[in-house]
Each structure stands twice: as structure tokens, then as C-alpha cells.
């Protein structure tokens, strides 16, 4: 009577046992940690990761200003007939609301 392969036979075919797998993973992890980035490079990459989004936003803002994108109506205007006095523009709310039909007054 022929029996199928026993569970112990599968471990003999080159597959590590559970204890061996855990030991080999631990030794691999420690060697990876030893080969990691130097302290200077790690600081450099961290700074680059933090500053890169800000640099991109500054470049975008500068580019949009160079090409004159968007309007910049002033918030206040001088009052006719009263020197030194200013008042809010009547259409200032259009700056903050997209629908002209329902502008607050």
C-alpha cells in the first residue's frame, strides 16, 4: 500500500521550516537596516519631500502671475466728491461668488 507524501517530506524539498524562515527573515531585515541611507542622505530626502510641494506651488503661482491669469479688482474705491474717503466696491461680492444672479448686497 503506497501512502502519499508525508508533511515532513515537503520540508525536505528545500522549503524552510517555520523556525528557519523566521531566522532567515530576521537576518535579512538586519542586513537591510545596515545598508540603509546615511544620516545626511536621509535628512536630504526628508527635506526634499517636505519642501517639494511648496516649491511646486510657488512655481505655479509665479507662472500664473507672469501670464496674467485671473483678475484682481480692488476691494475699495475712492468716493467721488470726498477726498480721502473710500468705500467698498458694489461688485466686490462677485469676487467670492460665482453666480451673479444671487449676489448678496
Summarize the topology.
Elements: H1 7-11, H2 18-34, H3 39-66, E1 76-78, E2 86-88
Antiparallel strand pairs: 1-2
What does this structure look like?
The chain is 48% helix and 6% strand. It has helices spanning 7-11, 18-34, 39-66; strands at residues 76-78, 86-88. It has a two-stranded antiparallel ribbon with strand order 1-2. β1 (76-78) and β2 form a beta hairpin. The longest helix has 28 residues, at 39-66.
The main pleated sheet reads as: 2 strands, antiparallel
Helical residue percent band: 40-55%
Low-confidence stretches: none
Number of strands: 2
Q: List the secondary-structure elements in sequence, H or E.
A: HHHEE
Kindly name the structural category.
Answer: mainly alpha
Based on Cα principal axes, name the global outline: elongated
What is Rg?
35 Å
Portion in strands: 5-15%
Compute the number of helices.
Answer: 3
Mean model confidence by pLDDT: 75
Summarize the structure.
The protein is mainly alpha-helical and 105 residues long.
Name its key features.
mainly alpha, single chain, 6% strand, two-stranded antiparallel sheet, elongated, 105 residues
Amino acid at each position: 500500500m503506497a501512502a502519499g507524501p508525508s508533511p515532513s517530506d515537503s520540508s525536505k524539498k528545500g522549503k524552510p521550516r517555520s523556525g528557519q524562515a523566521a531566522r532567515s527573515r530576521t537576518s535579512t531585515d538586519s542586513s537591510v537596516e545596515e545598508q540603509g541611507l546615511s544620516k545626511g542622505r536621509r535628512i536630504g530626502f526628508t527635506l526634499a519631500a517636505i519642501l517639494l510641494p511648496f516649491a511646486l506651488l510657488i512655481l505655479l503661482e509665479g507662472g500664473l502671475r507672469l501670464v496674467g491669469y485671473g483678475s484682481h479688482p480692488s476691494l475699495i474705491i475712492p468716493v467721488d466728491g470726498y477726498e480721502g474717503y473710500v468705500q467698498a466696491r458694489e461688485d466686490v461680492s462677485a469676487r467670492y461668488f460665482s453666480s451673479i444672479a444671487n449676489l448678496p448686497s
